[in-house]
């Protein structure tokens, strides 16, 4: 290793670790008991580099409401670590806490029920009943019933029995199979899974546990071809029948990758459970499902329905839909929001009318709501009027808080209008909101929002900062961040032509981060940062790793090229079929834009991106070979003709390369013409022109963009003498998100770019020597 690089590793890694140790708040819950203060619990996570895991803890606080209507959070002196805990779910009254611990090996899953003073019950659920409980944020669903006797949840269905053989021709079914028993277990039939991040998972299934007796039952009557997720109890009905509502994804004719792909058809279903008085071991009636009730599809007339949420009064079932993604075939698109009016007798009704609350927005007028883009909906998003929901949604390059009236469809942007900040809902305190806001150069900050009714009957929201020990960082990091600034740039489309939709010709955006002293005399080098998807977006929130790169002397140009989420459906739909040209042109326009504004030098530009962002990175260094001094590609799509045969989303390859009319082509093996077209649309077809030294960061377990895409391209560069470095993370999937991988990736990106931007020990790195 060169002496310079060695020094760089040492200097950068110590700063990077300071960024890495900053915690995140993942969730929050508030508890109010009569006569007591409001209390809060915040789930905090932090990278633990040595064990390569995320350490999770709970930070508690008392919340004081002062006479002057200000709010104070009094924090416990220390957080408490929650080791081995997969999920915590408070009961509706807040008097019980369910703690779920998934096993690391083939051991039993553990459910604990805690009261305010102690653990009351503990149940171990053997693998013969089910595997691990899903806590993936997608299939995941854990729901207490109203009288807090049962919990419905999603867990991996039991594995099918496997034959075991001995060397003498004998066999048994699912017998003991170790060397000593003289038997070995056969592999059994291979079963399709839901692709990226779901390796080894076959069947998310629905279970109910009676928390008095610990009895667990798999809910009967559900077709085995459905994968189940996001279960909730329907409103309580007087009588012996209760209903569960859940999402079902069909695996017919086969499963395709579902991670980052909301275009997999899904529907809401209802299933009935009956209270059986005679079977109870604890005098409480036991809820049982029976085969005789056919599971009811509640959303037959719409191709996608998920995140079911009942209003607190039980009158409405509201859900999100990705119908636009399902119907067009793009992997993500503009969402819509819908409502079903629930019958007063509490029973589901198959042909209920589905009302549109927020339809898909095709192309918004300037400054108007651009459409709904939600990554989740809070489990209890309701204000006390029973018809207003608080939702986080993407609006151009920022995430904002919206209030949505589910009866009138009225949408109000309630977080402050500054697009340099992004907002995320943590929890609700009655009609008040606890949220988090941050910007690319400002740490996360807890915010408390109160609605203020005006005389005109309009409501405005006032937001106060809540101080917390959670986001404290070192003085060095704080001072480095204070020297940075960020802004959102609007960039005009250069290649507009006849036949395009109006939305496709509207300006797109880029987030620009730079030092406040970035001057025209000596510019900091620029890193162009490109998100994946391509139907995804880079948001104006704080990212430790990007902040790290800007504090070591780089300006960042984070481009939300056309096709990104948050800009309306027409702009989004303009990209499929045009990847490698429209998106490449947008990025080049964004670079010209900052150069023309005098914010960057054309001679010091680097580029990096993950996945489709890696596709763009490698397209750019091939199509504009003199523009970039260095590049970094993370699990990049370099050859669609190669990827199509190995990825979990072959449909994506056709849609992005050929347009949405080609969305069903993947069901046939690719023809020679298809392979030629896919090749021509890929970065590999420009590889002979590349000059930029390129760093490749690859996850060996990536099933989305298998490593051979990156390896083939990197080897081709090496053959022609371009400087290449490959780091292979043996146990990582598509997103290199494990703490050591994240750290090693960004450390190497910093060192790689320093090397080629000829960055020696100049002024902006002096801080590292102190
Ligand atoms: C749909 C999808 O996963 N596309 C990949 C090629 C990709 O770009 N992934 C994105 C989501 C990423 O950022 O990894």
Automatic annotation (TrEMBL):
Domain Peptidase S9 prolyl oligopeptidase catalytic: start-end pairs: 542-758
Known EC number: 3.4.19.1
Annotated GO biological process: proteolysis
Any matching Pfam family: Peptidase_S9
A single MF term (Gene Ontology): serine-type endopeptidase activity
Subcellular location: Cytoplasm
Reactions mediated catalytically: Cleavage of an N-acetyl or N-formyl amino acid from the N-terminus of a polypeptide
Keyword Transcription annotated: no
A Gene Ontology cellular-component term: cytoplasm
Keywords: Cytoplasm, Hydrolase
Residues of the Acylamino-acid-releasing enzyme N-terminal domain: 3-478
Family label: Belongs to the peptidase S9C family.
Assembly mode: Homotetramer.
PANTHER family on file: ACYLAMINOACYL-PEPTIDASE (PTHR42776:SF23), SERINE PEPTIDASE S9 FAMILY MEMBER (PTHR42776)
Protein name: acylaminoacyl-peptidase
Species the sequence originates in: Vigna radiata var. radiata (Mung bean)
Underlying gene: LOC106769975
